[in-house]
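Worked Example 4.2. Consider the chain below.
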Amino acid sequence: MALDWKQTSQWWYGRFTGANGRRLLVNLNVKIAGVRPPHINDAGPDVDQRFIESRGKALQEHDRIQQDIQAKNNLIETQEKLVELKTGERMESVKLAELEQAWIDIERTKTPSDSHKNTCLLVVRSFVNYLKDHAPAARELIDVTKADAKGFLAAAKKEGYAGRSLNLRRDVLRTLYKHHLPESEVYRRYLLNVPAQDEETIHRVPFTPFELKAIMDTVRGDDFLRPLVVTGMCTSMRQGDVCRLQWKSVDMENRFVSVRTSKTGESVDVPIFPLLFDELRKRPHGKPADYLFPDAAAMYKANRYGIGYRVKKLLLAALYKDDSAEPKLARLSPEETRRNVVEHCATLGNQERAARMVAVFDAYAGGSSVKKMAAVNVSAASASAYLNEIEEQTKCQIFRGHREGKSISTLLRADGANLKVDRPTGKRRASVRDFHSLRVTWITLALTAGVPLELVRRVTGHKTIEIVLKHYFQPGREDFRRALYAAMPMLMTDGTAKTAEQRVRDFLEKATAKTWKRDIAKALALLGGNN
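Applying the procedure from the previous section yields the following structure tokens:
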């Protein structure tokens, strides 16, 4: 009999022979009922009837799987013969256990970024794990059927992943099949025809001039973050390009930054504005291959998300307002805080635990992180628990980075207006305020001020003008209206033609502290008959 059991398991198993003669032991998902006899094939009046019934169900499931395996083997054999006839070579498959390395080994014209690589490998891993549960007989990529691939994509959609994530899963599978099984039925008949899911576009929000000032006021004393923010604000460069900016790309004499963008590979030239020039001339000039911001380059290489986290902390400090009525933690001197900690620990009764808590506090107050408590022989989890208990009981601020009595991590999770918004679909909220918002701000201000679109594209390195307009030009309604009114003929904006005197009056009435020179010049030009 092709059935089997394990003494430590309550399930029936089936023995099968897969493609290439591989022997498989597969859980049939049928429970063993009743009392087990000494032998799996025992029968007769003394054998529990419930056991016999469960064995019969297991046999039926075994036969069904056997038919599926046979059909799959026939299909694989047919595919292999077709490929051999067309190409003169045998179809080679990839073992599922080696699928991640197979994705890495694919030849590409452009090396994927570490972030994209890790994301794609997570998709490959989740695909292999899905097959372990839903297609346990599959050992190689060629064993995967259309139903298996379709089920994997459908399961991700059911879990609520956003359109972009669903399309990434489809594209990863396409890439694997295109390079390893291009003639397979799964690829030609299914994956090539899977339609793309709609990807909702949630735009980052540009900063207003007042917000930019608040950000600059907050970051002024941060020698690590300030140069990065100023560079991003003045050049519209992406976070990674800013962190890895080299001296060979900076022409201080002619005041230009010339760099090839990491995302599109386009060469861009960006004029150095006075704010950035003042920032850069403070830095010691290094060799052409040296980084302008070596500490940021090192952090970006080790943990690119660390830079983004620090930027979000900055934005919360500059823009976040706590309107809640929750009690705030007391901010005392180090001496007063430690005295309160020692007094609290003395009330615990357990002297050994109290001594550990004081030791953890002293180590943390001395600059150690929660994750590095080896000096006091305490795990990171215990250290975090101790410090949280101390903060809660003493009502003193213990953790570094708290703002208004709340940790930065808590604020980042709770914030729903300044930094993140909910997506219509998807498992994660969308970031609308981060380092990339500086790029959106630069583009929006430039286009609103009338800088030609082609010049903006040359600065940002976008390959098409459409991308700039669709994803980056995000003016406020008033800014948009003012720009259109200034550009459109009077008949289109006001409905009637105005005299020169009326237009001069309009210029003077709308002049602001920032625009008065330009508006007066326009008014004088009108009075002089030059317009």
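The chain is about 50% helix and 5% strand. Residues 252 and 277 are 8 Å apart (CA to CA). Compare this with Example 4.1 before moving on.
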